[in-house]
From TrEMBL:
<dbReference type="InterPro" id="IPR011854">
    <property type="entry name" value="HypE"/>
</dbReference>
<dbReference type="Pfam" id="PF02769">
    <property type="entry name" value="AIRS_C"/>
</dbReference>
<comment type="similarity">
    <text>Belongs to the HypE family.</text>
</comment>
<dbReference type="Pfam" id="PF00586">
    <property type="entry name" value="AIRS"/>
</dbReference>
<dbReference type="InterPro" id="IPR010918">
    <property type="entry name" value="PurM-like_C_dom"/>
</dbReference>
<protein>
    <submittedName>
        <fullName>Hydrogenase maturation factor, HypE</fullName>
    </submittedName>
</protein>
<feature type="domain" description="PurM-like N-terminal">
    <location>
        <begin position="72"/>
        <end position="184"/>
    </location>
</feature>
<dbReference type="InterPro" id="IPR036676">
    <property type="entry name" value="PurM-like_C_sf"/>
</dbReference>
<dbReference type="GO" id="GO:0051604">
    <property type="term" value="P:protein maturation"/>
</dbReference>
<feature type="domain" description="PurM-like C-terminal">
    <location>
        <begin position="196"/>
        <end position="348"/>
    </location>
</feature>
<dbReference type="InterPro" id="IPR036921">
    <property type="entry name" value="PurM-like_N_sf"/>
</dbReference>
<dbReference type="InterPro" id="IPR016188">
    <property type="entry name" value="PurM-like_N"/>
</dbReference>
Length: 370
């Protein structure tokens, strides 16, 4: 038990075992508070430390109704009844090339996918580059070519940008920031407040491919496995889903922090339970084996070409059929459901009939994977 939990439990009169458990759960579901005095790698991992930093520094300074939603992008009402989605993302992955992709592809796919998660049809991107002095021009050309191809494949254009060059040693080769704009069709409202008990949780494919591919590509670990990143634009797949299941409640791509952290964000936003079925979680044997060797739960390992969807019970079959007809949706599966209790919590029902609680990611077991 952490010192903070112990302090919380001791802050009142004595109580029984049931009350102890209730107070632990109440404490665990609180938004994390920033206690650090310096930024650590954990603040960039997408888990508890990231949430604490965002709340205490950025939301505190920039607070406004559009930002307070803390979704993958902001949806803005325009004159004439149209709605525009706007999002931004930065990419610092190392190595710059990895099995299945590159930082260039990732920079396009990541922002396109953030737009898709709020129901937008992506239209335009911007791209900004921070380049370290001495970076090979040929390598830069290759990464930019990857970006151009990824954008063309998704029928979007990169229409503005910026470049900065910093002295050698002031950056690790290349960093890229992209921002995206798209329009949200009338009637779409993919937000947590639409989620209801009994809804089903789907995932569009296998878990943890990207994060583990990048980790092994660094060559720091004595592990060999045939794992490719799943980096891909999912906007077309999302359109097929929404055509087949128009009552879809909510979408999210499980990037930093993985499925476990994203499900916790949903549980806390709705004050409902996300109940996952362990035997239905789609994890490739190679990814599962590497995770076991590293002592990492696949639920915390990032994807960059998959998404979670909460759909109405009567649309599950249509949703899965639509996803599975597409090349990047063939492994789509139902992995759980939404329940009333335990409120604000993610639990996994194990193959042995027990349950375990899945908390938000703590620490940073997979640094700089996007």
């Amino acid at each position: 038990m952490s010192d903070h939990v112990a302090e919380y439990l001791s802050s009142g009169p004595s109580f029984g075992e049931g009350e102890v458990i209730e107070r632990i759960e109440t404490f665990r579901k609180r938004r994390p508070r920033l206690r650090d005095t310096v930024v650590t790698l954990a603040h960039g991992a997408g888990g508890k430390a990231s949430a604490a930093l965002i709340d205490a520094v950025f939301v505190e300074a920039f607070r406004n109704p559009l930002l307070d939603n803390l979704g993958d992008g902001a949806v803005i009402d325009l004159p004439g009844g149209q709605r525009m989605a706007f999002c931004t993302d930065s990419f610092v992955v190392q190595p710059l090339r990895f099995p299945g992709g590159s930082i260039g592809q990732l920079a396009v796919h990541g922002t396109l996918n953030d737009l898709a998660m709020v129901g937008a049809v992506p239209s335009w991107l911007s791209a900004a580059f921070v380049i370290e002095e001495g970076f090979p021009i040929a390598e830069l050309r290759g990464i930019v070519a990857d970006m151009a191809a990824a954008a063309a494949d998704a029928y979007v254009q990169i229409i503005t940008g910026d470049t900065k060059v910093v002295p050698k040693g002031a950056a690790d080769g290349l960093y890229i920031t992209t921002a995206g704009v798209g329009l949200v069709p009338a009637g779409r409202d993919l937000t947590p407040h639409k989620v209801r008990p009994g809804d089903r949780v789907l995932i569009s494919g296998t878990i943890g491919d990207h994060g583990m591919a990048v980790m092994l590509a660094r060559g720091d670990l004595a592990i060999e496995a045939d794992i490719n990143s799943d980096t891909a634009a999912v906007s077309g797949l999302v359109e097929r889903l929404l055509e087949a299941a128009p009552s879809t409640r909510w979408l999210r791509d499980p990037t930093r922090g993985g499925v476990g952290t994203v499900c916790n964000e949903l549980a806390q936003a709705t004050d409902l339970a996300v109940v996952l079925e362990e035997e239905q979680l789609p994890v490739r044997p190679e990814v599962n084996g590497a995770c076991e060797m590293l002592g990492i739960d696949p639920l915390y390992v990032a994807n960059e070409g998959k998404f979670l969807a909460v759909v109405a019970p009567d649309e599950v079959d249509a949703a899965l059929a639509a996803l599975r007809r597409e090349p990047n949706g063939g492994d789509a599966v139902e992995i759980g459901r939404i329940a009333d209790e335990p409120a604000g919590t993610v639990v996994v029902r194990t193959g042995f009939g027990g349950t375990r609680i899945v908390d938000m990611l703590v620490g940073d077991p997979l640094p700089r994977i996007c």
